[in-house]
Amino acid sequence: MEKYHVLYEIRSLEKLLIRSFICDHEIKTPPTPTQMQIIEYILSVNTEVYQKDLEAVLNLRRATVSGVLQTMEKNNLIERVATTNDARVKQIILHPRTKKLFLEHQRKLEQIEKIIIKNIDKKDLEAFSSVLNTMKKNIKEYSSLHQTSVAVKEERRK
Questions:
Q1: What sign for the dihedral angle of Cα 50, 52, 58, 60?
Q2: Is residue 75 within 8 Å of 29, Cβ to Cβ?
Q3: Taking 90 as the threshold, does the pLDDT of residue 125 lie above it?
Q4: Pick from 7, 32, 37, 8: which is nearest to 21 by CA?
């Protein structure tokens, strides 16, 4: 049976994409893909956005989102403002220049997408998308089962 190195290939593709997307010499600290997702989400909703919202939408842990938001704040992409109801809860607000920066990077991302799917048949892209979705589903199922088995083992120890 042929040996597959799917994880290595995914990581390799990710590195190539990030280098192409992030390596923009015009901007000192361009937004990362995760930062772009956060900006896109904030722009797409008509409600106040909090860290908990981003954790749920992006399926990321609290510490990860917190670190990304700290970097975004340091780079003047966002501001976190205490709410009137609870000073511990911070609303995430985009700086005015962030939308412009996002739109510029969005155009670049669209260009990169056109480049990477060039000469790939529509059926192949649909199959690729299906395979990726199945992989994500498999990982989620595994994670769910693994977390359940860990919880059961911990319960047995008590």
A1: positive
A2: yes
A3: yes
A4: 32
* Residue 65, amino acid: V
Is the Cβ–Cβ distance between 80 and 95 less than 8 Å? Answer: no
Claim: this prediction has a pTM higher than 0.70 = no
In whole angstroms, give the CA distance from residue 81 to residue 85.
12
Q: Are 58 and 37 within 8 A, CB to CB?
A: yes
Separation between Cα atoms, residue 70 and residue 77, nearest integer Å: 10
For the stretch 95-110, pLDDT in tens is 988 988 888 888 887 8
CA distance 28 to 78: 16
- In sequence order, the 6+-apart residues with CB closer than 8 A to the CB of 135 are 6
Burial class (CB in 10 A: 0-12, 13-18, 19+), 66: middle
